[in-house]
Amino acid sequence: MTGFTRRTAIKIGVGLVAATFAAPAIAQRRQRITIVTGGTGGVYYPYGGGLAKVLSERVPNMQVTAQVTGGSVDNVKLLHSGEAEIGFATIDSAFDGLMGTGAYAKDGKQNIRSIAWIYDSYVHIVASQSSNVTTVAGLKGHRVGVGSPGSSTEGIADRVLEAAGLDPKKDVTRDNLSVAESANAMKDGKISAFFWGGGVPTAAVRDLATTGQTPIRFLPITTERAELERKFPGLYRPFLLSKGAYPGMTEDVAGLGLANLMMSPGNASNELVTGILTGIFANLDEVHKIHPEARKLNLKDAATRTAVPFHPAAEAFYRSKGVLN
Fold this sequence. Notes:
Radius of gyration: 20 Å
Shape: globular
Structural class: alpha/beta
CATH class of the largest domain: Alpha Beta
CATH superfamily of the largest domain: Periplasmic binding protein-like II
Helix content: 25-40%
Distance between the termini: 37 Å
Number of strands: 11
């Protein structure tokens, strides 16, 4: 875990309030579901909280709470252990979990399945303009935020640094910080740059760019992307960060994208998975209001096959809708 104890982490969502006032007979019939999200500065946190609210309000007898976590790695482990019913993760972290590699080497293979593609993340590399760093290779010798310990951000940071010919353990001074902590550290002049794999816009990055207190630039990932695509086929793809994505951007930035998945435990019941997906897609207009990245959710793209297999009930759901080949 990355500083969050299981089941004692902060929870949000209308479900907790509803349970307080519900009559005992009704409360017993309500299905309790936990969705594990991420840190408060990222996209998973508001996305998960919004889904908890929509499902709790719109689906009869479903009570959903959203739990703050360290992100993808925590979520995969919580799903595997049965301590959560829904969770978000980047595809590379989820695939590592399936294989029992990377951050999961000590814990072994994780029993998880995909239930929907939700959006593509952008691998942000944010550098202060005062650092004069303009390339990934130029990070050598600098203090860099590489994500929370064991997070998917830390994993991709190491891979990008290696693809640039750097030793991620020796050539940069590492700070294991969340995206919110990284933004604050940059404001305070403590780090030259930080990595963050997340949706666009990410609140912590947007707020940093908006204040103008610490002018920033986004580093491109170009030659490094080709190496990553060669070494990890199917996990990463080109992503163009448009100049309007964050305040102050004057040009597009070529970079790296990776899919984000909504997942369940591999042994989740078919009834549970079908109920969740039915609730989400029956209330898609409400879901789209949660966050700009939530607007990208639609039946066709949700049914996109990835390196992480679908839960059988998810596959059956998309086939019944005619969107899965």
